[in-house]
Amino acid sequence: MAWNEPGKGQGDPWNRKRPSNGKPNLDDLLRQLKDRFGKFGNGAGGILTVVVALLVLSLLFSSYTIVGAREAGVVLRFGQYSRTLPPGFHLKLPVPFETITKVEATRIRSVTDKVAMLTRDENIITIDFTVQYQVDDARKYLFSLNDPDGTTGAAAEAAVRSVIGGSDMDQILSAAGASLVAEAQTALQKTLDAYNSGLRVTEVSFQNVAPPNEVKDAFDDVNNAREDKQSIENGALAYASKVVPVARGDAARIAAEAAGYKAERIARAEGDTDRFDLLLKQYQAAPEVTRKRLWLETMEQVMADNPKVIDGSDGRNIINLPAQPGAAANAAGADASTTGVVVPAASHDSADKGGQP
């Protein structure tokens, strides 16, 4: 007879009772499962079959793994490291033969801290620093350190302290502080490599570098004085860059003039020497003639600029007096003494005797 035969009501081939209200009873569910799997065997055999089926399903589901795009999978075989899986779908031995631990390899981790440090010149300075790092080797990250993040924070503080302790306060607060950040990153990476941490430092930064609040006012005064000093030095350098080229140009000009004057004097001296040598030869050949010629040339040079004319011919010669500047305006009222004519005493004597002037 069919289970849904008319007139028999809504039957159930599995003899399942459907409660009208509320949730199904747990005992009923267990009884139903027992009834279903009882077909494969009775008593303990049926239970064994269920256990085996569940075990097979568990082995199948644990025989593969999927590693995310930002992860790395570390496989342990009987608790010993076996291999590292890249992102993707992978087959493996089921649990408990192989287990896998996934590590976020590309995630950027960070450590931030604020510490007060002592500089090389015995000044106290407060620094806020941040260290960013990521996993470079998942195996070392899992098994080399008990607390990788805590170890990284302690190593970062030690690296920053070593760099700050070896530098002066002025160097830390100046533009050279950027090089100290690079030194701190290098020192931290060396420490983490020595620990086989499997971590790679990506960035180290100093957010706030300042003296303690107790000495901040005095420190600001020192900074202002340093800025004033720098401003004065810049002004002096600008003035020097403007004045020094002018002074160098004047020095070069004076040196050139001195060199020209030197060359002129040397040439003139050499010419006078040559002329004297020629004159000496002439004097040795004709002493009287040469002496008289020298006397005449000397007198000619002396009298060349003298406006007076000396007549030694006893007034027998007609002398054309040279024109003087401004003489035309004063010619009408000029006296005989201003004409520039000196008459020897002999000419006056001849005039008194009735001679012609």
Automatic annotation (TrEMBL):
Chain spans, region Disordered: 1-25, 330-357
GO molecular function, one term: peptidase activity
Gene Ontology process terms (BP): proteolysis
Domain named Band: residues: 62-223
Transmembrane segments: 40-61
Subcellular location: Membrane
SMART domains: PHB
Coiled-coil region(s): none
CDD domains (UniProt xref): SPFH_HflK (cd03404)
Entry's family note: Belongs to the band 7/mec-2 family. HflK subfamily.
NCBIfam families: hflK
Name assigned to this protein: Protein HflK
Gene name for this UniProt entry: hflK
